[in-house]
Structure formats: C-alpha cells, structure tokens
Design goal:
The structure holds two protein chains of two kinds.
Chain A lengths: L2 H9 L4 H22 L2 H18 L8 H24 L2 H11 L11 H17 L2 H11 L5 H8 L3 H21 L5
Helix pairs in contact in A: 1-2, 2-3, 2-4, 3-4, 8-9
Chain B lengths: L1 H11 L5 H9 L4 H19 L18 E4 L11 E4 L8 H26 L19 H10 L4 H13 L3 E2 L3 E2 L8 E4 L4 E9 L2 E11 L2 E2 L4 E3 L6 E6 L5 E8 L16 E10 L2 E10 L4 H10 L3 H7 L4 H4 L5
Parallel strand pairs in B: 3-8
Antiparallel strand pairs in B: 1-2, 2-9, 4-5, 5-6, 6-7, 7-13, 10-11, 11-12, 12-13
Helix pairs in contact in B: 4-6
Classes of the chains: A mainly alpha, B alpha+beta.
Chain lengths: 185, 325
Amino acid sequence: MEDAEIIELYWHRDERAIEETDRKYGAYCQGIAYNILRVYEDAEECVSDSYQRSWESIPPERPRRFKAWLGTLVRNISINRWKKDRAAKRGGSFSLLLEELGECLPAPMDTEEAAELRELGRQINCWLARLGEGERRIFLRRYWYGDSIPALAESLGMSGNGLRQKLFRLRRGLRAFLEKEGYHI
Amino acid sequence: MRENLGLAIFESLGYIDPEYIEQAANSRGGERSTLRRTVRLLLIAAALLSLLTAAACASAWFGLGARLISLGGQGEAGAGEGESYVSLSGLQGSPEFLAAGQWLEFKNSYEQKMVEGQLAEGESLYDWRDLERGFARENEYDLAVSRIYGVWDEAMLKELKDIAGEYGLSLHTRAGRPESGELEGTVYENGAYKYGFMLPLHDSYNLVTVYYEPWGTLPAMSLPIYAPGEYEQWEYETDLGARVDIALRRQPIDVPENYEPSPGELSWDCLIFCRGDGADLTLRCSWSGEPAPQNTAEDIADALDFKALLEDGSISAVAGAIKEK
C-alpha cells in the first residue's frame, strides 16, 4: 500500500492504518528502536507507542514523507526510553555510539533544551548537505539509524578498520564545521 | 560527559532533512535487503516444493464468523458497531477465544478509563503507565508477561493472570526474533510466531503476514478488523489439499458519487484460516489492482502448504511451505 493510502486510512480513522503501517514499516521501526535499546521487548513497546502516537497525530498532521516521519517518531520515543533506563543500563553499544558522536561537539551545551537541539540539527543539516551522497549515507546509517560497525562495514564492502577511519574523518569534519560556523553556547 | 554531548548530537539529528533519512534508509540492510533475502529464500523453496507430496488437511467451516471477537456491540459477524478483532487461537466458545475477548474488553476499557482520568487531571495521556514496570521488577515471570501483553500497572497484571487462570491457559513468557537471521518476525517460547514475507504471485510480490498459535496459551495479540459484515467468505481446498476458510473485503475508497472505480483502483483485504495439529494458522494480506480478487485470494491460499506449516509448527518451515504461482 502506498504511503498516501495509509495516511488516508488514518484520516478516515480506519484502524487498518495501524495494521498497514506495521506491515510496511514494522521491521524498519523495530530496527531503529532495537539499535538504540538493544532489548527486543522494549523495542517492540516503543514501536507500539509510535503507532499510538501516529494515530493521535494524523489528523491533523499529514506527513509528506511518512517513512522518515515515522522513523523520527520511533527514534525519539526510543531515545526517551533509553534515557529513562540508562541509570540502570549504562554502557553497551549505544553508549559507545554516543561517545563517538560526543567528539563532534566543540562546546558543552544544555542538552535538555529542545530549541538548542533544533538549532544544532539545522547546523548539522547544512554540513550534511555539503557531503557527497555516499558519505552522508554512511554517517546517517551509523548515527541516525545506529547500525553497528560490523554490519555497516559488511554492507559497504569495507573492512571494519577502514570504516572506523572513515567515520573518524567524518566526525572530525563535523566538529571543524561546527567550530567554523561559530557554533558555541 | 562525552556521552551526553553525543546524545545531544544524536537527538539533534532528529531535525535534519527527511530526504536524507530516507536516502540512508534505502541503502540499509533493513527493508530492501530483507526483501531480496526473502525472495531468494522463496525461489529456493519453490524448487524444493516440487518434491513434496500433497495431502489433505482436515478442516470444516471455521471461518471469520467463528473467530470474530466483538467488543462493545453486537457479537455477530455482521456487526458494524463496536470494535472487532479476529481470534488468532481458538473458535467461539473455546477457552482461548473467551479469554482473548475478556482480556481485550478489560484492557481497552481500563486504558480508556485511565486516559480519561489523566485528561481530567490535566496530565499527559500516558503518564499513568509505569514504563519501568516497577510493580513487576521483582518477579521475572511478571515482568516478562507484562512486556508481552502490554501491561502497565499492577491491576492490569492481576486481571491478566486471573483471566488466564480462569480458562486454564498459559501466558507467553518470551518473545524474540527468529534464530535464523534470514527471517523477520516474532517467535514466542511455545513456538507461536508472527512472520511477514513477500509472496511471489502473478509476476509480482504480495506482502503476507502469517500468525501461528498453538492452543493452550493466550495469544499476545488479536487482529483488529474493520466492518466484519462486509467480508465475503467461502471454504476452499488448496492445490496441496488443505481445507481453508477465506474472508475477503473490498477496502473503502473515497470517490465522487457517480464515479465507478475501475478494478485497478480497488484494493482488497484478505484473511485465510486453517487449523489442525493443535494450532491455528491465520494469514493476512492485502493487494490492489487485481481484476478477479476471489481468484487472487485462492491463488494466495494455493501458494502456501498449510498442512506442512501446521505439522511442522516452526517459523523455519515457512520458507519451505511456499509454492511459486
């Protein structure tokens, strides 16, 4: 079913909307949540919650890019879930990913401020626009979707070390960009 | 410290251009490569199937009407009001069917009551949910069933256990991915599974979801269904000798009053049921543009060896049970 048809189901308050969303994007959402939480049941719950949130948001919303919209939704829900759990579950592969990303930020910031996060996102978007499509995909697969280094390296036909170096250069490039743009708090 | 900075960047990436998100998704091993893997599996399965011998699968008239759980309204298959679900295990009157209905009735009304309470208090809709499930943390079984059945507080947990006890049913205690990396789905501790895959049919692929539920356990979910009275139903014997029940409904579309949509503009929702060897098997799929939907529904039924799936009872049997049409 096309995304527009699924969104029409939401607008008609037809419960098949959830079923069709799950059919088409269940595995996609599950993958995003699992890469953050690393607990299957928790990921399932976040996916369920994201469907609930979709049901509550559409209407009035009518996402133009439903897949990205839904992915962002499940990602945000999973991040919030991870934050709640992290005191008890500190460590693991997601923490490692965050440690990597932490190198990119030249200055500390108030991480709770949504407006600052949005502004930082806008800056990073400018930086992403300057990258080649291949590099942008690698960066986002690692840091938006949370793909593991071995899985990403395998799908790209690269060695793990080669990929780590590539990611290191990208992170360094992002940090330099943010510094150059005068990004500071 | 650095983890927090990383989290800030990770969260800020939530504001980037959606086009970049979709571009990256399309290069992932998620959906696309999963489909390619599945298609490869299907082709291998089709070759193996020629070696299988067809055998009859015992089934009587056990269609949608016998599996329909109607909440807050009429209980007939023709019900148009209230919420309706398809029981994934057990027919009307069976412990599984009755327990599933009772649990759904409780869960929906309880959640509604809690949400209304939150609204009255001016709180966020879902603040009543104990996300940490502190009420079940000290008991591994309680925590497991709470996660699987969407239980959010002690009252829900008590009701769930009471219902299962009343009907002499077990509860699922483990849900995970299939062991094989090739398969996308959910497998439970008793072998029950939900598995979505692409079925080759008429030179294209149809997305199909199969639910397998052995009797004796309360299913983790029931399938929501809209306008059950609009389903056309019939019994059918597949090419491989299985007796199945098919339910087919044309999905509503918005068109001007005097406009007659062409077959290509119509889409269909189809359910296929088969039972035996101590379990229920339910298949759900939808498609658009096929001029003879009844034939398509029967072709889909012919493309799966239902008897083999029920006899084997494991998710790994699905790939081997697919026959290319």
